[in-house]
Amino acid sequence: MSVILVTGGSGLVGKAIQYVIETEPEGSRFGKKPGETWVFAGSADGDLRDQAQTKKLFEKYKPTHVIHLAALVGGLFANMKYKLDFLRDNVLINDNVLHTSHLTGVKKVISCLSTCVYPDKVEYPLDETKIHLGLPHDSNFGYAYAKRMVDVSNHAYKDQFGHNFTSAIPTNVFGPHDNYDLESAHVIPGLVHKCYLAKKNGTPFVVGGTGKPLRQFIYSQDLAKLFIWMLRNYDDVEPLILSVDETEEVSIKQVADAIVKAVGFEGEYTFDTARADGQFRKPASNKKLLSLVGDFQFTPFEQALDESVKWFLENYDTARTGKQQ
Ligand code: NAP
Ligand code: GDP
C-alpha cells in the first residue's frame, strides 16, 4: 500500500498529474496501480511555509511517497519584482516538506526544480551536471537559489541518512489550469490571456520584449506522465531534466504567432521592446531522460497549445485570470 502526496496539487502540474492518474487505464504505465492512494493538496490544505501546518498535513495523510510541486511560481516579470518572496517562500516550503518527509519516514521524495535555476553563463546545452556552475540570471536569482538548495538538501539527506530524495528539472511548462494572471503568468498563459482580451475588446495584442528569446516548452500532461514514470523507476539523487529535445527551441515570436492562430485573433500585433527579454536562451538536453525512459511520445507543440487555449476559453470564468477585464 502506498500513499502518494502531491504538494502543489491544485496547480498547473499537479492538476495534470491528477488528470493522467484519473484517466489512464488503471494498472497501465501511467495509470493508478492497485494499492495506491493519491492525494492532491493545495495551499488551502495547509500553508507549507509553516512548519506546524506542514506537519499536520503529513499527519493527516501519512504519505509514503511525495511529489513535491508546491512553490511560489511566476513568470519573468513576477520574478524580477518579488525576489525576496521567491527566495524566502520557496526556501521555507522546501525545507518544511523535505524535513517533515525525513521525520515521518517518507520513502521517496521527488521535488521540482526548473531550467530557470541554471547559471546564466554556462556552456550549452544545459545538463544535470551544470546546476551549480555559476551565478543565475539576475532576473530570478531569488527563485534560482531557493530551488538550487533542494538539490543540495537532497544530497545531504542522502549522505547523512541514505534517503531516496531526488529532483526533476522541467523546462517552461504550459497547459490547462495554468496561472493566466496578466502580470505574474509565464509567457504562454500570459499571452493567451492578452490575445483573448485583444480579440474581445478590439485592442492591439502587445507582446513583451523583442520576441527573439528562445525557450523549450513541455506540455503539462507530458510532464505529468514523466513524473509518474520517475516515481516508479528513478531512484538516484542526481536530478533529471524532463524536456523535449534541445533542437525544439521556439522563439517568443513563434509562440505569439501560434497563439494568434489558436485564439483566432485578426487585429494589430506589436512588441513592447521596453519590456525585459530575460535570459536569451537556456536549451536543455534530454539525453539522460531518453536513455532511461524508453518509448515516450511528446505531444506536438501546436496541438498542445490548441488544447490549452481551448481549455482557457471554455474555463475563462473559473480560470486563474487574476483581475477580470
Ligand atoms: P502553479 O500552477 O502556480 O501551482 C503552484 C502550486 O503550489 C499550487 O498548488 C499552490 O496552491 C501551491 N502553493 C503555493 N504556495 C504554497 C504554500 N505556501 N503552501 C502550500 N502550497 C502552496 O505552479 P506550477 O506551474 O504547477 O509549478 C509546479 C512546480 O513546477 C513548481 O515547483 C515550479 O517551480 C515548477 N516549474 C514550473 C514551471 C512552469 O513553467 N510553470 C517550469 C519549471 C518548473 P494553491 O494554488 O492552492 O494556492
Ligand atoms: P522565463 O523562461 O523564466 O523567462 O519565463 P517566462 O515564461 O515568463 O518567459 C519570458 C519570456 O517571454 C521573455 O523573453 C519575455 O520578454 C517574453 N514575454 C513576452 N510577453 C510576455 C508576457 O506577457 N508574460 C511573460 N511572462 N513573458 C512574456
UniProtKB/TrEMBL annotation:
One of its GO terms (molecular function) is GDP-L-fucose synthase activity. It comes from the Eukaryota. Keywords: Isomerase, NADP, Oxidoreductase. Pathway: Nucleotide-sugar biosynthesis; GDP-L-fucose biosynthesis via de novo pathway; GDP-L-fucose from GDP-alpha-D-mannose: step 2/2. Gene3D superfamilies: NAD(P)-binding Rossmann-like Domain (3.40.50.720), UDP-galactose 4-epimerase, domain 1 (3.90.25.10). The keyword Nucleotidyltransferase does not apply. Residues 4-238 form the NAD-dependent epimerase/dehydratase domain. Its EC number is 1.1.1.271. One of its GO terms (biological process) is 'de novo' GDP-L-fucose biosynthetic process. Belongs to the NAD(P)-dependent epimerase/dehydratase family. Fucose synthase subfamily. This is GDP-L-fucose synthase. It comes from Ceriporiopsis subvermispora (strain B). The lineage of its organism: Eukaryota, Fungi, Dikarya, Basidiomycota, Agaricomycotina.
